[in-house]
Amino acid sequence: MKKETFKEMMKEFSKRVHEQIFTHVPKEDWGILLENNDYVNFGYKPHLPYQERRNENLKHKNSLILFTATLKDNVISIYDTYQKDHGEISNNAFYDLFLSFFNEYNENCFLNLIHGYGSKYARRNKLSTFLPMGEEAKEMMKLLEYIEEKGMTVHYWNFIQTQTPYYSNRKQFDVFISFEGKPSLCFKPFHSHQGKTFYLSSKEDVDAFFKDIEEKNKLFTHYQSSLEKSIKKIDITSFYDAKAGHMVIYNQRIHFHIQEILDKKGVTRYKIRFNDTYNQGKDLEKVFQKVEKKALDYVKKNRVKAALKGNAYEVFHKFFHKINGFNPKTITYDSTFETFLSEKEFNDALKAVIEQDVINLDQTYVTYFQHYLKGEKRRNVIKSAKKVANLYAFTSATKLFVLKEEEFQNLSINLSSFKKQDKPYIQQLEEWKKELFVSSVAN
User: Fold this and answer.
1) What is the tens place of the pLDDT at every residue in 187-211?
2) Nearest CA to 177 among 221, 275, 111?
3) Domain tally for the chain?
């Protein structure tokens, strides 16, 4: 959409908003400011400087209303710069007028109600605040929805941005929509060095684009796993936190990630960061070999120092990450975990199972342990329950409760802490747990 067309449309839209919704504002006080290149202001005295508008805000509580509308990459966004809530009727009327007006013009574009009038009504009624106008725009919206189905995150702001679903090959793209010639989505990397721009016009284009992303993710994951396995042979505490882009060695975070980049000549290269240094080249295997040697030298060099600090054998960070999928900077036996075991016994128990798979337990485990804590007058809210070998792990916002299987089996909920009407349900939970272990013995 041309800027001239946008400004002409906004002049008419401003007029209708005043005539149909904000009729209490005197005609001489309503206007539109068109001087800016990429946005317009319309509403109550749009020409007022900032300080004068603040003074007006105090004097005219029932009149002050100002909108800002922007045009960026065929997305028209409207939001309230200043507002006083004039009630549900105004919200509904603004949303209806917004849709009917732009449908009338039938220009291919996207409409975005960011906040304020109209958007409140839409969100309350679970209606979309990002809307395609025109047949070609509706086709591009279907393509964006298909991209979401493929697993990519799509953010609708006053522009569109997408993000790949993989931590090992994380890329962000600004999405520009073109209606010149064949309608298409232009995927431009957020960082120019991250690769070339893609033009997608069909589901087949999306499939090919996504296949390339998946293949690169598998490739990077292979090398990340390979380095992780090599380091584990020396440091049992080590693991790779893909989400954060860290290799954790001796319980210390070390930057490690692989990138595909374009150099200034447009040639694809691979760049790997380990700790504070970078290696790059056209051949990923050769680059990785250099980084792997550097990483193993680092692990060997710091082994004695880590042992003296007690970091060469403690697997608290590793277990926490295994259960929760992230790695806080500070994790200690006293502040992070709650267990019946002593610190040494606990660490030994974790080491015995640390490489085994995590099993997600169903909601009944969460419910049982939540009621157990309530019976003990504890206020922790349990979010999840998982099992690793013979250890049960219950996660709350502040604590990770870890119990051995026999400890969980021997738990009992304190009935005296519950009201009479709740006690039958508690007894059902106890029967469930009893049956659980009877069944496991039978199997």
Assistant:
1) 988 876 777 888 999 999 999 999 9
2) 111
3) 4
